[in-house]
From TrEMBL:
InterPro entries: Acyl_CoA_acyltransferase, GNAT_dom, MshD_Acetyltransferase. Residues 3-167 form the N-acetyltransferase domain. This is GNAT family N-acetyltransferase. It comes from the Bacteria. One of its GO terms (molecular function) is acyltransferase activity, transferring groups other than amino-acyl groups. Pfam families: Acetyltransf_1.
Length: 167
């Protein structure tokens, strides 16, 4: 499956919030308390998205029909979750695939593409986090070869920190 990454612009902010809300509703139906703040996001989450868009870190994921099927945020540094790090890495946040495209291996394809970007940038790791209250998501990342290397406690939740070595 061929997927393309399209830079998200400021005028697409509401679309980003709607994608987060859709993901929160999907997760709630699974009886998992994860991302529920996106149904009515607090000011710090709104700012987090605005800053990410301003810094060109958010991307829509589109298929060959140019249909938006998901989104992701890719950072070169992640001080909030990871602090200062010596090794070069890319950091993945806000990865979501629209419900109608679940079960098609799209998440895996997106992560593989970001891993290739990291390799091209001579990064040593691909890093991400997952809410510890979402064991299915944590297991998914572990199945894809990510290793849990720590935890980060934030006011909203506790997050498992995962990394995958770029070979």
């Amino acid at each position: 499956m061929t997927l393309t990454f399209h830079q998200i612009h400021r005028d697409e902010f509401n679309t980003v919030l709607n994608l987060f809300k859709e993901a929160a509703e999907k997760i709630a139906k699974m009886h998992i308390d994860h991302w529920q703040y996106w149904k009515n996001p607090p000011a710090e989450k709104i700012k987090w998205v605005q800053d990410g868009i301003k810094n060109n870190e958010y991307f829509f994921i589109k298929n060959t029909s140019n249909t938006t099927i998901g989104m992701v945020r890719i950072l070169n540094e992640d001080h909030l979750y990871w602090g200062d790090q010596k090794d070069a890495a890319l950091y993945v946040h806000s990865l979501m695939v629209k419900t109608e495209y679940n079960g098609q291996g799209i998440g895996k394809t997106i992560l593989k593409s970001i891993e290739e970007q990291a390799k091209a940038k001579s990064c040593n790791y691909l890093r991400l986090d997952a809410d510890s209250k979402n064991p299915k998501l944590c297991g998914y990342y572990e199945h894809l070869g990510f290793n849990k290397v720590g935890e980060k406690v934030l006011p909203i939740s506790t997050y498992n920190l995962y990394q995958k070595e770029i070979l």
